[in-house]
Design a protein that fits this description.
This protein has 11 helices and 9 strands. The chain is α/β, with parallel strands linked by helices.
Length: 294
């Protein structure tokens, strides 16, 4: 009997010690369901989408954007379908910065903000598919018809809005940015020494980043974007549509260097920067970025 009591005492002591050794925060961390996702799409509605200014006979750039968005929606819904209804807690939304003056575009944007929770019924999947099959095209057609390309203030979005709009606690936060890789808006154009809040082809030339040793010049002169945020380690970013101007064979690499360094400075751990390839080539990459599967 004494042996049994002694054994029970030892087991009890070991159990208490193990609980005491558990690092603080483990229980809270275990509640974080990374299977819940929050997908955001930031669209650059500058003249890069204008088929007259930037034509492409193979497939217009605005049409590529539309197909990218459909691929994002496909990846999002594929992810939802892997979950039980009781675990639904996922969102997807579209942003512009600044907001277009055209009220129709803003109305389309509201329609594209979708949310799944445990009260969502199966019919909602068809509703989402229908919205994303038509509304993105309406947005681009309206912007092109309007012809008032106000540009996209991506730097200001990261400075003042990304935390509130695109980062949701206890979620995987994924931001897709549809842009040609250049960054410019008159309301946020400034520089701090060699770093700038903008990037244009003219700036690439003036910084003499036009040869194979551009990285050496880049690092020596400390070129790059001005840091817009301090800590975005809970945000994944995928840039789609990089489209360098012709004439400099290193232009695309320079653009990517700007973005990569910027993301690293803002502590973004997971990111991808993709060229304006055909949607059929990028769709598997887009879907995998959301679901982890092709």
């Amino acid at each position: 009997m004494k042996k049994i009591l002694y054994l029970l005492l030892i087991i009890s002591l070991v159990s208490c010690c193990k609980k005491a050794e558990d690092p603080p925060g483990d229980k809270a961390d275990s509640k974080v369901d990374s299977n819940d996702i929050n997908v955001s799409i930031l669209i650059d509605l500058s003249d890069r989408i204008d088929p007259k200014t930037n034509p492409n006979p193979t497939m217009e750039y605005f049409q590529r954007d539309i197909e990218y968005i459909k691929a994002i929606e496909k990846g999002f819904l594929n992810h939802i379908k892997t979950k039980r209804i009781i675990t639904y807690n996922d969102q997807m939304q579209v942003f512009f910065n600044p907001e277009p003056s055209n009220p129709k575009i803003n109305d389309f944007t509201k329609e594209l903000k979708i949310s799944f929770d445990q009260n969502t019924n199966k019919a909602y999947f068809n509703t989402v598919e229908k919205k994303y099959a038509t509304l993105p095209s309406n947005i681009y057609q309206s912007a092109i018809k309007d012809g008032n390309y106000v540009g996209s203030d991506i730097w200001e979005f990261f400075k003042n809005k990304v935390n509130d709009y695109c980062v949701k606690e206890d979620h995987r936060n994924i931001l897709f940015i549809l842009t040609d890789g250049y960054m410019y808006h008159e309301n946020s154009k400034f520089s701090e020494k060699a770093k700038t809040s903008y990037l244009t082809s003219k700036l690439v030339k003036s910084n003499n980043l036009t040869t194979s040793n551009f990285k050496t010049a880049f690092e020596k002169n400390n070129f790059g974007f001005v840091k817009a945020n301090d800590n975005l380690n809970n945000l994944e970013v995928i840039v789609l549509g990089v489209n360098p101007e012709k004439g400099n064979p290193f232009e695309e690499a320079v653009i990517k260097e700007y973005w990569e360094n910027w993301f690293k400075e803002m502590k973004i751990k997971k990111y991808q920067i993709k060229s304006a390839d055909l949607p059929s080539n990028l769709e598997p990459i887009i879907v995998k970025a959301i679901t982890g599967k092709n």
